[in-house]
Amino acid sequence: MLKGKQSILFDCAPYVISSGSVVGKKEGEGPLGSLFDLIEEENLFGQDTWEEAESEMQKEACLMALGKAQVEPKEVRYLFGGDLLRQGIATSMGLEELHIPLFGLYGACSTSGEALALASMSVAAGYGEYVLAVTSSHFGSAEKEFRFPLAYANQRPLSSQWTVTGSGAFLVGEEKSHVKVSGVTVGKIVDYGLKDSQNMGACMAPAACDTILQNLKDFGSKPSDYDRIFTGDLGYVGQSILFDLMDKEGVDIKDNHMDCGKIIFEQETQHTNAGGSGCGCAAVTLSAYILPKIQSGEWEKVLFVPTGALMSTVSFNEGQSVPGIAHGIVLEHC
């Protein structure tokens, strides 16, 4: 059923049946390293280019999620996937051989939330017994696409974030598991006019604030109703701004808020400045860290809010601002 302005409470809630997480060497050396399904020591993943490596990550993450559930690709009705590259080539080229009907998405770093929301809506509506949601990012391809090729060796400002090399895939379906998607809050574009592409946290924090507040309003909830409220990619700078924005609205989430961009790297020793970002950041953290805690019952209810900065090389070169968007996924133990 529809809830409030932007949310859905599922009458027949779909389940997250399984997931797969694939990361690169740096992510494997971080605080969550022991939790990922696959850590590749060579960040080209056996390919010739960063882009091909990202495609390989997506394929491996999907096959891992399917393998855990003992589901064949031909049993999957639809696949919702996206990445950060132009025309979503990491997704289209990586998943081609799976032969699953595909919806290509672009929500920047919020794509894991967008894909999970659409997959959950499809299953809840009866449009498929199994639906896959997947996304990825790669440090090398993202730097090449949005900033400077790695060979340029430019200095990074303290507000910048390190794009996670990783892919997370999720099999959503009717089959009961210990994690259900009880509802979603679809975010809207929020633009404070910021233009600094090296400060993604500041660009995305207003959208995170907007979606969290709308989720609480639509569901008649308070922050303490959630064991954790996770944002995706705000990092240290963005989290501080989010807290300030929430405080202005009279809502305090400091006690139960966590950010994937803060916990995926060790800031000082790994030199990641303001933390992690990229489509893969929230996706692999959800798969490896968040879902197991919900599955075990350690956390009964989590609001997962990956955040995205909706920029492109064209918009940046034309001097446009960097709008943000965030999607909320309500995950519950069952």
Descriptive report:
The chain is of the alpha/beta class. The chain folds into 2 domains: 160 residues, 3-Layer(aba) Sandwich (Peroxisomal Thiolase, Chain A, domain 1), CATH 3.40.47; 155 residues, 3-Layer(aba) Sandwich (Peroxisomal Thiolase, Chain A, domain 1), CATH 3.40.47.40. Helix content is 35%, strand content 23%. It has 11 helices and 17 strands. It has a 7-stranded mixed beta sheet. Helix 7 links the parallel strand 11 and strand 12. Helix 6 packs across helix 7. It is globular and about 50 Å long. The model has no long low-confidence stretch (mean pLDDT 91).
Helix and strand topology:
Layout (H helix, E strand, L loop, with lengths): L1 E2 L3 E3 L5 E9 L1 H4 L9 E2 L10 H20 L8 E5 L6 H6 L7 E4 L5 H14 L5 E8 L1 H8 L15 E2 L2 E8 L5 E7 L14 H20 L8 E4 L3 H14 L8 E3 H4 L3 H4 L5 E2 L1 H17 L5 E5 L1 E3 L3 H5 L6 E3 L1 E6 L1
Parallel strand pairs: 3-4, 5-6, 5-7, 8-13, 11-12, 11-14
Antiparallel strand pairs: 1-2, 2-10, 3-9, 7-9, 10-17, 14-17, 15-16
Helix pairs in contact: 6-7
Low-confidence stretches: none
Our count of helices gives 11
Could you estimate the helical fraction of the residues in percent? 25-40%
Give the topology string: H per helix, E per strand. Answer: EEEHEHEHEHEHEEEHEHEHHEHEEHEE
Kindly report how far apart the N and C termini lie.
20 Å
How can the largest sheet be summarized? 7 strands, mixed
- Described by the principal axes of the CA atoms, the overall outline is globular
Structure summary, number of beta strands: 17
Spatial order of the strands forming the largest sheet: 1-2-10-17-14-11-12
**Share of β-strand residues:** 15-25%
Number of domains: 2
Output mean pLDDT.
91
Say what the CATH topology of the largest domain is.
Answer: Peroxisomal Thiolase, Chain A, domain 1
CATH class of the largest domain: Alpha Beta
Q: What is the CA-based Rg, rounded?
A: 18 Å
Write the CATH homologous superfamily of the largest domain: Stage V sporulation protein AD
CATH architecture tag of the largest domain: 3-Layer(aba) Sandwich
